[in-house]
Write a structure and sequence with these properties.
Elements lengths: L1 E10 L2 E11 L3 E6 L6 H9 L6 E6 L2 E2 L9 E4 L10 H11 L5 H10 L13 H14 L4 E5 L7 H17 L3 E5 L3 H4 L5 E6 L2 E7 H7 E7 H8 L4 E7 L2 E7 L10 E4 L2 H10 L7
Helix pairs in contact: 3-4
Length: 283
Amino acid sequence: MIELMNVTKQYRNASVLKNVTLKIDEPGIYCLLGRNGAGKTTLLKSIAGYQNITDGKIEVGKKVITTSTLDTGVSYIENFAKHFNLSVRKLLRIASEVNPNYDFEFAAEMMERFELDEKKKFNHLSLGMKTMVSSIICLASNKSVILLDEPVLGFDAIMRVEFYEMLTESFQKHPRVIIVSTHIIEEIAKTIQKLIIIDQGRIRFFDTLQAVETKAFSVSGLKKDVDTATANLNVIGQDTVGGLVTSYLFDNPPVEMPSLEIHPLSLQDFFIQMVGHKGGAKQ
């Protein structure tokens, strides 16, 4: 459905995307993680055809994507998205009029669930409600690819839970590729099927959450014991405190030793180790 082939994007002398190759060939809810400035928004905008890349090729549904592509098959909403200052009802109506596949019933149902005042103009909404309206319009578009850039900004904890439920319902009703960029890692883990980690313009990880759960570990103990247990394994980070060492792995579980403590990594700790240290998981 989506294929990026050796994609590079430069702004003046800075490379924001560096030779990115990525293939997403099945429907699912994907989470895009990366630190600020890692290239998340640039990646999403490039897939959506909002900007041209410097080198390489992007295809969505076998169609080459550029800013001149008439129908990319992609619906993209960036954080702090702006709309015409019309009533919420009018915005939904316009979206349905320009897109014959628009799911107005789903949009109306979500508007009611989130108690959005359809008479209120867009600029009079709170940040969270603006983001929710944009997300609903995007999901209801029924495009084959949905890209949501930091969609939970301005949401309280209850709204975030309801938003993830909405994502799941939308996907179950219309299975397609949905990519969500977010900083709130653990909350979305129950919703997504696969994880994409981007760091300094490169894809560092693309796999299932099950892979993280079964292959990401911390190993703590004396340095000589840790080094012995992790020899020939993929170490993605290491901390030293006093005489104790903790190595972080993405590999098969190490052999247990009485002198070692071995624990699975949380998704957040795995992400921190992937982007906060040199090295990284094998692709």
